[in-house]
Design a protein that fits this description.
793 residues; eight-stranded mixed sheet; six-stranded mixed sheet; 27% helix; Fn3-like; Glyco_hydro_3_C; Glycosyl hydrolase; hydrolase activity
Length: 793
C-alpha cells in the first residue's frame, strides 16, 4: 500500500477533493496515491438490486458470473453499481434509500471516500418499477420530431438523477439493416440521418438532466448476418463508415455524449471489444471523444468464450484495455484478480490501467463524486427522515401527470396511418368488433426493455406499478355509445386456430371490425420481439395472418391495427384492409393515442422509420440500397416494400408547389438554397412531414439510390400554407471514396422533396462545380429548413 495519501493543500483537504483545483490535477494526485488494487477497483461494476426495505443493495446472482463478495471488494473501492433499480421490483423511495445507504458504505470503506457511479437502463423510460413506460425508440423515429424526443429524455434523466443514478444505458444508435433482428424495436430506424438526429436529441435531453448518456452498440451490431442476435457482421469499411458510424459521430459531436458501449459482434473477424482502431483510433484520436467506454455486459469475457481470441481472462482483460474499454460491466470478472496478476507479472502494462482509470475518475470528478460536500442522499430524499423506511413507501412518483402527458404526445405523433379507403376516422360506429390477440392485452404496448417486460415478468405476484389501459378500455371511453364485442381469435404465437370462427362471427354482426395484431415483447425467446427474439421471416407470428385473412373474407370493413416491435408483411391486408394503423410499442399511453387517431380527435402524423415489406422473405432490405438492391428483371425476388420508409397518411391533403432554386450551380464547398410551398388543401388540421433526399446519379463508388439528408414537420390548418426555404450544404453529398477518405465530388445531383422515400413531390436538379474536396468529422451535417407563413388562397 502506498503510504502517503494525505496530500494536503492550502484548503486543508486532499487535493483530489478540492473543487477549486483543475480536474486533471485532482485526478493525477489521486492516481499517484493509489495502489494497483485500488486502481483496478475503479474499472469494474457489481450487479446489484436495491432493497425494497430500504437496506443496502444485494449482489445480483447471474448465471453467467460467480457470486460477488462485497465485503472483500469494497476496501479497495468500486467503480460502478449495475442496475440498482432495474434488477428487482422496488418502491422508488425505498430503492433510493437503499442506494444511498450503499453509497455511504462504499465511500466509508475505501481510503479515498470515493462512491460508485450508479447506472441503469433507460431505453424506453427509466427501467425502474413504477416509472413511466414511454414509447420504444422505433416510435421515436416515427415521430420525425427531435424536439419531443429531447423533452422526453430530459424527463427520464430528471427522474433518474433524483433517485441517485448517474448514467443511463441509452440511446441505441444501431441502424436497422435486417428487420428479422429481434432488437429492431430498440432502434430508431433504417436511415442513419434519422437515427442520428433523433438519437442526438435523446442524448441532449438526458445529458441536460446530468445523466451520462451511453451510446450503443459501437459499432455494427445491427448488421449481423441473417438478422441473428450476436452473429458476425457482414459489411465492408465503406458501409460501416457511411451507414453505421454517422449516428455515433453526430451524437458525440452535437449531443455531448459522455459514454460509449461496445457492440458484441465481430466485423470481418475483429470483435468490437478488441478493436483498437475503432475504440481508440477513430473514437478518440479522430473524433476527439474524451468520455468513458464501457463494456456491454460480459463482452470482455466473450473475447475468450465466444470469439476465441483470448487464451484466458487476463488475456481478455489486456486485449480490451488495449483496445480502449475502460469499465467492465456488469460484474467484476476479467478486470479483477486476473488483471491485477497480469499487471503484477508484467504481462499487461500498468499504463493501460492508468489510462482507463484517468477517464473513469475524471467522469466521477465531473459528476461531483469527489467533492468534499458530496452526499449519498439523492435530491428526492432531501429533508426526509431516512430512519423511518416504512414512511417513505410511495413518496416518490416516477409516473406523474407531466410524464404521462409527454408519453401520450410521443405516442400520438408516432402513430402511422399506412392506408385508408375513407373508413377512418370512425364516425360514431354502433357496433365494434374488437378482435385479435392484442385487443385486450395490457402489455401489448410495451417493449422488451420496459420494466414490466424486462423484469416484472419474473415477479408475477408484483403489481405492474403503472396503469396500462388496453385498447378495449380506451375505445370504450372514445366511443361511449358503441357496443364493443371482443374476441381474441388466436394468440400471439401459439398458432391456435380454434378461436377464429368466433372472431369471424363477431365481425359479421358488427359495423366495423378492428383487428389488433402484432408482437409480445420479451427477452431471449420469451417474446416475438426483443433481444434474442430473432425471426426467419417477416410473417406475422403464429396464426395471426390466418385470422386476418378470415376477417378480410367478410363484408364487414376491417381496420388492421398493429402493436409491434418490427414491421411485418401483411399479405392481402395491404390491398384489402379498409385501413391499416401501425404503432411500434407505443408505451403506457399508447392505446389512448391509437383510440384518438381512430376517432379522428388526433390527426395521424407518424411516418415509417422502417419500410414495411410486401413479402415475408425479402430480407435484408432497406430503402437505403444501391441500384442492384432494388427490383430488377434478373431476379425473381422483389424487395419493393408495401409501404416505404417515410410513408404515412393524414386525414387531410397537402399540395407541394412553386419550387424555386436560387442557384443551379455551387462549388464543392458551397450550398444550394431552394424554396417551395406546402399547403393544407383539406378540411382538417394536419401535419405534413417534409423529407429531403439526395440522389447522386454518377459517383466514383456505388451509392444508394437516395438517402435522407433533412426533414421537418409542418403543422397546417385547413387552407393554411408555409413557404419552406431549405439550404443544403455540399457536405451532405459526401461519401467514403475509393481511397477510404470522405469526399465531395463535382457533378450533377438531385434534391428530392418528398412525402416518403417512394413519393417525391418536387425535384431540384443542381450541379456541384470545381474540384473534388475531402471532408472529415467537422463537416456540416444538416440542411436548414425555414418556414414562413403564406397568405391563404
Amino acid at each position: 500500500m502506498k503510504a502517503n495519501v494525505a496530500v494536503d493543500n492550502t484548503t486543508g483537504i486532499f487535493l483530489w477533493n478540492d473543487p477549486t483545483v483543475s480536474v486533471t490535477a485532482r485526478v493525477d494526485a489521486l492516481i499517484d496515491a493509489m495502489t494497483l488494487q485500488e486502481k483496478i477497483a475503479q474499472l469494474y461494476g457489481v450487479w446489484v438490486g436495491a432493497s425494497d426495505q430500504g437496506g443496502e443493495v444485494a449482489p445480483h446472482q447471474h448465471d453467467m458470473e460467480e457470486a460477488v463478495d462485497l465485503d472483500a471488494l469494497l476496501p479497495n473501492g468500486l467503480g460502478q453499481l449495475t442496475r440498482p433499480f432495474g434488477t428487482v421490483p422496488v418502491d422508488p423511495a425505498l430503492g433510493a434509500l437503499s442506494l444511498a445507504r450503499t453509497q455511504s458504505r462504499i465511500a466509508a470503506t475505501n481510503r479515498f471516500g470515493i462512491p460508485a457511479l450508479a447506472h441503469d437502463e433507460c431505453l424506453a423510460g427509466f427501467a425502474a418499477w413504477g416509472a413511466t413506460a414511454y414509447p420504444v425508440p422505433l416510435s421515436w423515429g416515427a415521430t420525425f420530431n427531435p424536439d419531443t424526443v429531447r423533452r422526453m429524455a430530459a424527463a427520464i434523466g430528471r427522474d433518474m438523477r433524483a433517485v441517485g443514478v448517474h448514467q443511463g444505458l441509452a440511446p441505441v444508435l444501431d441502424v436497422v439493416r435486417d428487420a428479422r433482428w429481434g432488437r429492431v424495436e430498440e432502434t430508431i430506424g433504417e436511415d442513419p440521418y434519422l437515427v442520428g438526429t433523433i438519437g442526438t436529441a435523446y442524448v441532449q435531453g438526458l445529458e441536460s438532466a446530468g445523466i451520462v448518456a451511453t451510446l450503443k452498440h459501437f459499432a455494427g451490431y445491427s448488421a449481423s448476418r441473417a438478422g441473428r442476435n450476436l452473429a458476425p457482421s457482414s459489411m465492408g469499411p465503406r458501409e460501416r463508415a457511411d451507414v453505421l458510424l454517422p449516428p455515433f459521430e453526430m451524437a458525440i459531436r452535437e449531443g455531448g455524449a459522455r459514454s460509449v458501449m461496445n457492440a458484441y459482434t465481430d466485423t470481418d473477424g475483429m470483435p468490437s471489444a478488441a478493436d483498437e482502431d475503432l475504440l481508440t483510433g477513430l473514437l478518440r484520436d479522430t473524433w476527439g471523444f474524451d468520455g468513458t467506454v464501457v463494456a456491454d455486459y460480459f463482452a470482455i469475457a466473450f473475447l475468450k468464450t465466444l470469439h476465441g481470441i483470448a487464451a484466458d481472462w487476463a488475456d481478455a482483460a489486456g486485449t480490451a484495455l488495449r483496445a480502449g474499454i475502460d469499465v467492465e460491466l456488469p460484474n467484476v470478472k476479467t478486470y479483477g484478480a486476473p488483471l491485477a496478476e497480469a499487471v503484477a507479472d508484467g504481462r499487461i502494462p500498468e499504463t493501460l490501467v492508468d489510462r482507463a482509470l484517468r477517464r473513469t475518475l475524471t467522469q466521477k470528478a465531473m459528476l461531483g463524486l469527489l467533492d468534499p460536500d458530496w452526499s449519498p442522499v439523492p435530491a428526492a430524499l432531501d429533508g426526509v427522515d431516512l430512519d423511518d423506511p416504512a414512511a417513505l413507501r410511495g413518496r416518490i412518483d416516477l409516473d406523474g401527470p407531466e410524464n404521462r402527458a409527454l408519453a401520450r404526445t410521443i405516442a400520438e405523433e408516432a402513430v402511422v396511418l399506412l392506408s385508408n379507403d375513407g373508413t377512418l376516422p370512425l364516425e360514431r360506429p354502433r357496433r365494434i368488433a374488437l378482435l385479435g390477440p392484442n385487443a385486450d392485452e395490457p402489455s401489448a404496448v410495451l417493449g422488451c426493455y420496459s420494466f414490466p417486460q424486462h423484469i416484472g415478468v419474473r415477479h408475477p405476484g408484483t403489481p405492474l406499478g403503472i396503469e396500462l389501459p388496453t385498447l378495449r378500455d380506451t375505445l370504450a371511453t372514445e366511443f361511449p355509445d358503441a357496443e364493443i364485442t371482443v374476441a381474441r381469435g388466436t394468440g400471439i404465437d401459439d398458432g391456435d386456430l380454434s378461436g377464429i370462427r368466433e372472431a369471424t362471427r363477431v365481425a359479421r354482426e358488427a359495423d366495423i371490425a378492428l383487428v389488433v395484431l402484432g408482437d409480445r415483447a420479451g427477452l431471449f425467446g420469451r417474446g416475438t420481439s426483443g433481444e434474442g427474439c430473432d425471426v426467419d421471416s417477416l410473417l406475422l407470428p403464429g396464426a395471426q395472418q390466418q385470422l386476418l385473412d378470415s376477417l378480410l373474407d367478410l363484408e364487414t370493413p376491417v381496420v388492421t391495427v398493429l402493436l409491434a416491435g418490427r414491421p411485418y408483411a401483411l399479405g392481402r391486408a395491404v390491398e384489402e384492409s379498409a385501413a391499416i394503423v401501425q404503432s411500434f410499442f407505443p408505451g403506457e399511453e399508447g392505446t389512448h393515442a391509437i383510440a384518438r387517431v381512430l376517432s379522428g380527435r388526433t390527426d395521424p402524423s407518424g411516418r415509417l422509420p422502417v419500410s414495411v415489406p410486401r413479402g415475408p422473405g425479402s430480407q435484408p432490405a432497406t430503402y437505403l440500397g444501391a441500384r442492384l438492391a432494388h427490383v430488377s428483371e434478373v431476379s425473381t425476388i422483389d424487395p419493393t416494400p408495401a409501404f416505404a420508409f417515410g410513408h404515412g397518411l393524414s386525414y387531410t391533403r397537402f399540395d407541394w408547389t412553386d419550387l424555386t432554386v436560387d442557384v443551379q450551380e455551387a462549388p464543392t464547398d458551397g450550398e444550394f438554397t431552394l424554396s417551395f410551398t406546402v399547403r393544407n388543401t383539406g378540411e382538417r388540421s394536419g401535419t405534413e412531414v417534409v423529407q429531403l433526399y439526395l440522389h447522386d446519379p454518377v459517383a466514383s463508388v456505388v451509392q444508394p439510390v437516395q438517402r435522407l439528408v433533412g426533414y421537418t414537420r409542418v403543422e397546417l390548418k385547413p387552407g393554411e400554407a408555409r413557404r419552406l426555404r431549405a439550404t443544403v450544404p455540399a457536405d451532405l453529398a459526401s461519401f467514403t471514396g475509393r481511397d477510404g477518405r470522405r469526399v465531395v465530388e463535382p457533378g450533377e445531383l438531385e434534391v428530392r422533396l418528398a412525402a416518403s422515400s417512394a413519393d417525391p413531390r418536387l425535384t431540384a436538379r443542381v450541379t456541384l462545380t470545381g474540384t473534388e474536396r475531402h471532408v472529415d468529422h467537422t463537416r456540416r451535417l444538416h440542411a436548414t429548413i425555414g418556414k414562413e407563413p403564406v397568405a391563404r388562397a
